[in-house]
Amino acid sequence: MFKGLGDMDLSKMMEAAQQMQGKMAEMQEGLARLTVTGEAGAGLVKATATAKGELTALDIDPSIFKAEDKEVVEDLILAAIKDAQRRAQDKAAEEMARLTRELGLPGDMKMPF
Question: What InterPro entries does the entry give (predicted)?
């Protein structure tokens, strides 16, 4: 088999790898369920997204619907979406850090996704 590795060591490594793979899959599913809300214009526009960054809802205060404010409204919508996406990235990084701690891995270890 592998030179220098006993069957026991390889078996433990495979088990640890499978456990990590399972935890990663759980975390990915969890990120799809976690939501974050980004805001713009002091809460006049809110964008909700999953922690994976998928936009799921927009909430726009009707007071901003005036034809002369069209560009401002568009800017607020974009700002709220970007804020939600940033919060989603932060939440995903938080969850990854938690997972790496649970697995006893270095906190700065980068996972392949």
Answer: YbaB-like_sf (IPR036894), YbaB/EbfC (IPR004401)
